[in-house]
Design brief:
Layout (H helix, E strand, L loop, with lengths): L1 H16 L8 E3 L2 E5 L4 E5 L13 E4 L3 E4 L2 E8 L10 E5 L6 E2 L12 E3 L6 E2 L12 E3 L6 E2 L12 E4 L5 E2 L12 E4 L6 E2 L13 E5 L15 E5 L2 E5 L2 E5 L1
Parallel strand pairs: 3-6, 4-7, 6-8, 7-9, 8-10, 11-13, 12-14, 13-15, 14-16, 15-17, 17-18
Antiparallel strand pairs: 1-2, 2-3, 5-6, 19-20
């Protein structure tokens, strides 16, 4: 059902994109913002049109605060389609002020190769990284409870992903067509529920699922039991974005 709702939302959004229109309230240092409250801003796309792909390029650093017309705002979210189709975007630095990254925020950013998500982010919307074909690894912060539908759909270069102990569900097509996926580190001791097509086109006999020692429920989960499952002890540390198992 969620899949059909997302398709409907995308279709409605496409209608808006067909007509160029401003999608922001202000612009500061090349970044566009939508005002969400008297004190907070959300990173926004430049226009609702196919020309949005030229709005951002290269390495972008999102500031934690922005001063506009003499007033200082906190930047607390990244909006829907904010970086949509920005094919020349290579990296984004996200500040710890960000609490939410909304659906399709980085949709089809095919050249982006580095996104570090701060621990302050409590929600990541569906399809957020769909089509980001250059991302090699990703760590989802603690506190995220669900890997939303199509979150990494078509991330064909993705090799390693770390999912925190808080994850309880993995949605439809979440990792579909991640054809290079080799390692999934899942820190939850109980296997999350997993949509049947969550790992569509992923070779689960080749990809290794690393789980905490004693986590026997993974062997019984209908999708995850097909992975090569390896148990570990200790913590997973992040070093140069590549997870390492510490004994």
């Amino acid at each position: 059902m969620k899949k059909y709702v997302l398709m409907l939302v995308s279709a409605i959004a496409a209608l808006f994109y067909s007509t160029p229109a401003a999608a922001y309230d202000c612009e500061v240092d090349g970044i566009y913002y939508y005002r969400t409250s008297a004190t907070e801003l959300e990173v926004a796309c430049k226009v609702f049109s196919d020309n949005n792909r030229t709005a951002y390029s290269g390495a972008v650093t999102i500031p934690a605060t922005v001063t506009y017309n003499g007033k200082t705002f906190n930047v607390t979210s990244i909006g829907e389609y904010a970086f949509r189709d920005c094919n020349s975007l290579t990296s984004v630095t996200i500040p710890s002020s960000i609490r939410e990254i909304k659906s399709f925020a980085f949709y089809n950013c095919s050249s982006i190769n580095a996104i570090n998500i701060p621990a302050t982010v409590a929600a990541i919307g569906a399809g957020c990284f769909e089509g980001c074909a250059s991302i090699v690894s990703m760590t989802i912060p603690t506190g995220i409870t669900e890997i939303e539908d199509e979150l990494f759909y078509g991330c064909t270069a993705l090799k390693t992903v770390v999912l925190p102990a808080s994850i309880t569900a993995i949605g439809e097509n979440a990792f579909a067509r991640c054809t290079s996926l080799l390692s999934v580190y899942l820190l939850a001791t109980t296997a999350p529920t997993c949509a049947n097509n969550a790992f569509d086109k992923v070779d689960r006999t080749w990809c290794t699922l690393y789980v905490p020692k004693g986590s026997k429920t993974y062997q019984n989960e209908s999708v995850m039991r097909d992975f090569f499952i390896e148990e570990f002890e200790g913590k997973i540390e992040q070093a140069n974005i590549t997870p390492q198992i510490s004994k």
